[in-house]
Amino acid sequence: MKKVLYVAAFVAALAVGAGVVLSTGASAAPASTFVLLDGSRKSTEDLKGRVTLVNFWATSCVTCVAEMPQIAATHEKYKAQGYNTLAVAMSYDPPSYVVNFAESRKLPFEVAIDNTGAVAQAWGDVKLTPTTYLVNKRGEIVKRYVGEPDFAELHKLIEKLLAEA
């Protein structure tokens, strides 16, 4: 009986330890350079100090186009509190389509074009769109969404991250 109790206590301790490791599951955002529509560049290092949503999308992606108004509204809601959005168009998206989309929809955040696919590769070989990452102020990825996020849940997480030092 004592052996069973010791084993149970050991397993419980492992589970608690694993829970701590899993709950801190943030990993550093990969080093990459984003080329913005205006030709300027932004690096992963530039994301530090703000909570940033990095959204991989394409103009040909129905879900991406459908979620873009909510991404824009989220950006507007939190930008004054230290929140940023960076939309990264996939390499197969014609740059003229991306520019037209961003201008015609008056996107209120930065848009980059991943001409070579290197950024998508660095961020976990992104192939499915939309794929969205939420990055904390320390430059760590805290959440990855494939498909449209649950925006109510996303807003709660953004608020929690904005409140962190």
Automatic annotation (TrEMBL):
Domain Thioredoxin: 23-163
MF-aspect GO terms: oxidoreductase activity
Residue spans crossing the bilayer: none
Classification via Pfam families: Redoxin (PF08534)
Keyword entries, A-Z: Signal
Keyword set includes Signal: yes
Signal peptide: 1-28
Name of this protein: TlpA disulfide reductase family protein
Natural source organism: Xenophilus arseniciresistens
